[in-house]
Amino acid sequence: MSVKITSEYIELLNKAVARELQVSVQYFLQHAKIEKIMRKVKAENILLDPTTYDQIGQILKKLAIEEMKHAGAIVERIYYLGGEATTKAFKPKIGENMQEFMQYGFEAEEEALELYREIIREAGKFGDYDTKELFRKIYREEEEHLYTFQEYLTINISEPEETAPKSEWREVFDNDYFALLNKALASELSAIIQYITQHEKASAINFRKKETPLEVITNSNKAQVISDMLKKIFMQEMDHYEKIAERIYMLDGECTLDPDPLPKVGESVEEILKLGHQAEDEAIVLYRKIITEATKKGDITTKKMFEEILMEEEEHYWMFDDYL
């Protein structure tokens, strides 16, 4: 161990992980909700207002991805230091309109900067210079995020109006249907957190040991191969999460904020593979059920979306299966 640390120090770093996961989910769901809001806006200029929402939506998506990268980098450092990374996020705040999106983002970034100043101070006390430098870099990026939200705090654009009556074709989308779609959303969030944490753990020094001549020659081992595979799968799960959230909001539902089941990381490469295999198996069963229900309701758009997602989930299943 290059640095001697305490459990309290790891707990402090895990607060940063929980915060990064929180805002990543927050910004992703706000980005997804914008499409719904745009359709309810009575624009003075039919071209300008949707363009404004599109622009801010892209900003939120960009920030969400950056925050998830921060979470991954911090998780990697925690494992390097011999700690265990959390898979629990602080509770996101979504909001109902653009002003609330910007205000909640601004508040979240202010809280982050305060926490990261504390971590930078503590890292200096421990002589943990790599962690200190990591958080100085993240701090600079979070400060940029803060200024971005600050620029839009006083934004003045048309807000949604509930003027149009609910269409008859949407009456079939009842609470049970939204609960089913939200199971898929919660499953995707669980997979995202699980796979990014496993990816970083599989990259940790304890997993990088070379034990055979072939591993020495190729400068790789099974853990590194699995780590690379997890990164690819994780990116696809992020895409699934975004699509499902957008569909829920489009149908006038509300998105769940919590992962379900709770993400599980595992203590070895074999456990990582088994847990991934199990998660994909459960997702496939769930998504087949959603496709059946969507077909019954004549919701062809949702049916086609989940058919495409299901194909990728089956690919993930076989990727894990190949190594078991």
UniProtKB/TrEMBL annotation:
What is a single Pfam family found in this protein's UniProt entry?
Answer: Ferritin
One GO term under biological process is:
intracellular iron ion homeostasis
Gene3D superfamilies referenced in this protein's UniProt entry, alphabetically: 1.20.1260.10
Ferritin-like diiron domain residues: 3-160, 171-324
Q: Cellular component terms, GO, for this chain's entry?
A: cytosol
| GO molecular function annotations of the record | ferric iron binding; ferroxidase activity; heme binding
> Superkingdom of this entry's organism?
Archaea
Keyword Iron included in the entry's annotation: yes
Question: PANTHER family of this UniProt entry?
Answer: BACTERIOFERRITIN
Query: What is the official name of this protein in its record?
Result: Ferritin-like diiron domain-containing protein
